[in-house]
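During the reporting period, our protein records have gained a structure token line. A sample record is set out beneath this paragraph:
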Amino acid sequence: QVQLVESGGGSVQAGGSLRLSCVVFGYTSCSRVLNWYRQALGQEREFVSSIDSSGRTSYADSVKGRFTTSRDNAKNTVLLQMNSLKPDDTAMYYCKSLPCNTWGRGTQVTVSS
């Protein structure tokens, strides 16, 4: 059994920053890769970032250069530092662990212009 709990969402003005956190409870073998996804109202869920157990990262083009993901394996935590936020970044942000395909419940990010 694995559970993911996200936190750190909130409301900010455009240009601001937020840092999201996702804590993994349970089997660490289920969290070799930790991804962030987001879903805006009325839209499909989309990939944001990924980090594997070695620290290799990948990002969606829309967030490259603004978002940074990192992980603390000792604390079973993955972070998403979001800078230069735009109104288009407004969405519910979800953490997902692989290979177990477990999702968290999400944390809301709202960016106002």
